[in-house]
Amino acid sequence: MDVPTARIAIGRLFRSVLEFLDYYGVVDVEKRIPEETKAIFSVLSDEYQFKLHDALKMADDVEKANPIDPMDPEEDPVRMDCEECGNHTMVVNKESRTGYRCTFCENEYGDELPASCTICGAHMTSGDLENWSGEHGMEYRCYYCSGRYAADRDRD
Ligand SMILES: [Zn+2]
Ligand SMILES: [Zn+2]
User: What ligand is nearest to the CA atom of residue 131?
Assistant: First the structure.
């Protein structure tokens, strides 16, 4: 983890611990933490909130710029949940190898992302295709094009 990522992670962790303890009324944590520590954690926690707020706004903008055609149910989603950070910030991005990038954690991968077989164009989700990072972007292979179909058939 690099420093900004670690700071964000700690901030998020601390926030959820506070929410958890608060919810169950276990202890009044705020009172037990030394003032200095509390100040640091509150900065980290705010940083997380700020960053998330910005990321959600960025995702909103992408969504607005790429309106979905309601008449076309086959169209790929513009915005999804990020499988890495869990925020609703996974949006289409032309610079991404997978066509999607999270505005919060910059993750570009996920099993639920729409993808097409590089050979035959069969359209499914990334998790259903064999995939790896190729020289010119992501390479996807469906069950048939990956040779697995042939291998399974030969075995029978
Ligand atoms: Zn993310
Ligand atoms: Zn294929």
Answer: 2
